[in-house]
Amino acid sequence: QVQLVESGGGVVQPGGSLRLSCAASGFTFSNYGMYWVRQAPGKGLEWVAFILFDGSNKYYADSVKGRFTISRDNSKNTLYLQMNSLRVEDTAVYYCAKDRWNFDCWGQGTLVTVSS
Amino acid sequence: DVVMTQSPLSLPVTLGQPASISCRSSQSLVHSDGNTYLNWFQQRPGQSPRRLIYKVSNRDSGVPDRFSGSGSGTDFTLEISRVEAEDVGVYYCMQLTYWPPSFGQGTRLEIK
Asked: Are A47 and B101 in contact (CB under 8 A)?
């Protein structure tokens, strides 16, 4: 079945870096655009970044532009989010989600905590 | 950006009774291709979001038929015909018609 599994979260100090991964299975990963979405503790959902199926175009929320980089390796069926210059307000559960027009599958999420 | 506004934000419901959540968008969500890209998601406590409804009224596989979506243009509704204990959680609407995608604030459904 379609599955997305995130990893790479953890505790990091402000200004630090972290790289998240999202392993996809059960569908042809290279056919679909992919999202990163985050949810701060007790808050709602916020779109973070999107990458086209072939990696040719990438889009970012203003809150992370210039600090985060989305990428993918279609040979490994894996989506990435490189997060640099992390801030306290980036603390959240980060989810990957499938498909530009559907959001029909989400991973279980990985928690990123930015704290000194 | 398109703003999605849900109401109510908190919804206490008696088991077996109906529930209704409203979602309004700041612009019509009809895409130039004729589709309306309005989804509904359920997030149970401690879980990731799960899509329930896509393109206004299409129920996802495995979603009980007590869930239904309706609406058009800027006004949309998620209805639960008879609330069960497993329906507790937060419900979000989301639009994908315009870039960037945007979510409603969420409606917390609890059992009265």
From this structure: yes
* Residue to substitute from B2, B48, B56, B94, interface A, most A β-carbons within 10 A: B48
pLDDT, tens digit (0-9, with 9 covering 90-100), for B23-74: 999 999 999 999 999 999 999 999 999 999 999 999 999 999 999 999 999 9
- Asked if residues B40 and B95 have their Cβ atoms less than 8 Å apart, the reply is no
Instruction: Write out the DSSP string of A12-40.
Output: E-TT--EEEEEEEESS-GGGS-EEEEEE-
Q: In 3D, which of B7, B51, B104 has the Cα closest to residue A46?
A: B104
Q: Does residue B23 sit at the A interface (CB-CB below 8 Å)?
A: no
Q: Among A98-102, B7-11, B31-35, which is the least confidently predicted range?
A: A98-102
- Chosen from A1, A37, A45 to mutate, greatest number of chain B CBs within 10 A: A45
Helix/strand/coil percent split, chain A, to 5:
5, 50, 45
Burial code (b: 16+ CB inside 10 Å, e: under 16) for A27-57 equals bebeebbbbbbbbeeeeebbbbbbbebebee
Do the Cβ atoms of A21 and A78 come closer than 8 Å?
Answer: yes
Contacts of A98 (CB under 8 A, 6+ apart): A2, A4, A24, A27, A32, A34, A35, A104, A105, A106
Q: B6 in contact with A at a CB cutoff of 8 Å?
A: no
